[in-house]
Write a structure and sequence with these properties.
41% helix, 20 helices, 16 strands, three-stranded antiparallel beta sheet, alpha/beta, Rossmann fold, 490 residues
Length: 490
Amino acid sequence: MNVPADTQQPDIRPITLGELRASGWRPRTVKQELRANLLARLGEGVAVFPGIVGFDETVLPAIENAILAGQDLVFLGERGQAKTRLARLLVGLLDDVIPVVRGGHLNDDPFAPLSPAGKAIVAELGEATPIDWLSRDRRYGEKLATPDITIADLIGEVDPIRVAEGRYLSDELTLHYGLIPHCNRGIFAINELPDLAERIQVGLLNVLEERDIQIRGFTIRLPLDLFVVASANPEDYTSRGRIITPLKDRLGSQIRTHYPHTLDHEMAIVRQERLRFPPEEGVPTVVTPPFMEELIAELTHLARRAPEISQRSGVSVRVSVANAEVLEAAALKRAIRLGEEVGAPRVSDLGAVIASTAGKVEFETVGDEAPEERIVERLITKALFATFNQRLSLDDLDDVVNAFENGLVMETGERVPSRQYVRWMRDIPGLADAVRQLGALDSADGPDGWPAAGGSPAVIASAVEFVLEGLHLQRRLNKERAGAGVIYRR
């Protein structure tokens, strides 16, 4: 059995083939390695795929079954469904380090070298063959499939320089190996496999199944030890290209990925993936209230059901992430201009997400009556309406509505300081209770330690605008544009 190399201290690891043999180390294939380490993690209750949200009951069990069965993987799903991230996380199931022949070209196993250089070194030095230790992160290779990829890129080609040095074309040492052989004893991932030309897929099949490669008429037996992961987009799979049937048959499990099923999962991914800048002196802190996070997630979920948006290419989670980042940027600008220490996105900032949403989705054919910006605006309105109904009840806002019936008029906008919203909250009956229901007065941290900054004027201002806009959408208040802001009245 293979002795896990990560249990050995770096300074006492074997440095020659003889020392390695004496240590009792035994080789095992990549699939055996992945399987054993997965079983160990499952037994310890350790997360196998940290950072992956929403796949616990669907995708992850299928991946674990495939690894335990020793099968290669094909991830099938729309863009932005963590296919590449899942492939990269498989590296964590490899051993920390493995021994390789120093000077070998293909991560050569000291007990069974594969490359001509590795074989020559072991034949010449025997038990004194020097050993290097290869870390797990250097055992992963990835390639984006494009129609211009050649066999030379993936498998190899005759090196003209070596021929010019006097070697014969029939000499195996004249070959320069491609990406796949250099991933020997590791994981090879190829993204968007259907975009790979079918003749190149045939060459890939030859390597994986027949264990030989043919370069300019030379057939070389190359028993590569690989775990192969491929990804494909359903649109590509049915339109621009396809995975040839023999290759699809050899790749093992086809695992269907999906977008987050719940708003909570969508929001958790946004918190995890959004771009974060370190705190800077003199720069305001930006906090996104929970109800605004939910609105952003709801907008994306509505876009995934909207007939005006192409569902073939999908609506990625990156839309939610980009919208969250743009809203925070708008809040930061306002906080700087108003001289406030804390900023929070408001309803009046939602116009900023039109650009970040429209640039990340594919629209169906639209006429002059429904430009792309108008479609996004309608989705924003629907998202706000749905979030308001989820968070608040109209019956609890009767006092606020009555205040407007008695002649109250409020002008909001990006130029209105947060302290003005705080005064409104205190003076208008029922408004403080609505703000409290939205969690804007809660000073505890949000999910995953997310800073809530509840009770700050900026968060209260965001909640007040949310309440007013929700009442307008419920036809309880009128709204009209006024310069850089809007006026709410009965």
